[in-house]
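Q: Second attempt. The first request was missing the SMILES, so the protein and flavin-adenine dinucleotide are both included now.
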Amino acid sequence: MIGADGIGSPVRQHILGDQQVKAIYSGYLSLGSVLPRSQVVLPPDLQLPAFLYSRHGTILVFALDKDTIQWATTSPVAERDRHDWEDYRMSGQAVAQLQSDWSGCTLEPIASMLRHVTDDNIRLWAPYQVPELARWHTARTCVLGDAAHAVSPSLGQGAAQAFEDVGVMARLLTTLPDTTPPSTIFSQFEGLRRPRVDMIRKMTASAESTRGASSSGLGWFVKDKIIKASFMVMGKGKGSYMSNGTIGGYDATNIDVKV
Ligand SMILES: Cc1cc2nc3c(=O)[nH]c(=O)nc-3n(C[C@H](O)[C@H](O)[C@H](O)COP(=O)(O)OP(=O)(O)OC[C@H]3O[C@@H](n4cnc5c(N)ncnc54)[C@H](O)[C@@H]3O)c2cc1C
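A: Got both inputs this time. The predicted holo structure:
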């Protein structure tokens, strides 16, 4: 059995037996909304999708279609249970949090997006991650995707890693002889995928650490320069982060299967 049953996976619990694993809240709530493009002041040279870094924090902006803009940011907000998050949204606390975090921000399109966010159109997501597991499989059962390694969405890699898992599992199932025991398939799968997922986990944590607000003007000045320099360096060369080599260059059809 292969369990692709998400962050609260019962299959994972079966594999781990008595060892309880609890998904961990990242501590940063994602807040955002969907707005008509006419309400958003988009600077003419801004290409979407874009991450906008500022002293107040970071905002992701993208076009859902030609008339609609979606944006999202993160705020440090204490964990609540599922129903309390809805209260948090409906009671105006979520909008108040955004207005406080971004108070005084006059940069566009951020200022116009924040002007139009309301209790009715605000959306929020509490991102959770699955800690590193002792194992992903037993002799006859295996987990993949979020069930095995959910990461926070800071690098946009959760579903991407689930797809890669599926690509590798499909390749093993179609390349190895039919008589191969499931335990051999699952063990190769875990061996092939763990190092990749560990690297993505570290890159996600590093991306997350750049997204928060800066506590002082000097802090932001330094961070701004570091971010610009990093993008210039990382953007160069084959296999670089920006040229999509490290992340987007993974080819599940080309992995080395031990037959
Ligand atoms: C705010 C946010 C933004 C994100 N942005 C990105 C992004 O930009 N890029 C990216 O790659 N990823 C992103 N992700 C992560 C992505 O959504 C997940 O990593 C991905 O959905 C994981 O896929 P999955 O199939 O492993 O699990 P899921 O999508 O959780 O699917 C699991 C399925 O199993 C079903 N299930 C559970 N238990 C049972 C059961 N007992 N019986 C039958 N069915 C069951 C569930 O109903 C569900 O349909 C984001 C996540 C969030 C929260």
